[in-house]
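The instructor's notes for this session suggest beginning with a concrete chain rather than abstract definitions. Hand out the sequence below and ask the class to guess, before any prediction is shown, which regions might be ordered.
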Amino acid sequence: MTAYRPGAVAYDRAYGMPGTVRQTDGVFVVLDRPTGMTWRVHYRHLRPATAWERRQLLALARLHAQRLRGIGRAGRRHA
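After discussion, reveal the predicted structure:
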């Protein structure tokens, strides 16, 4: 039904943000973000992500990983 494959990055017009396709279920697509947010959306609300949106998702993944490690902007640990 949908051309979105797991691992592809799509932009959800309803949420106004990109996500990585986790799985498809008929006309629905499950997206997730590096922060762990997961949601299900009808494929008609999606469009392929632009290069900028894909970079945005990668930057979010890096930021989230840094915060999980407790590293701030200057590379210092938070007390």
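Then share the key points. The longest strand covers residues 17-25. The chain has a mean pLDDT of 89.
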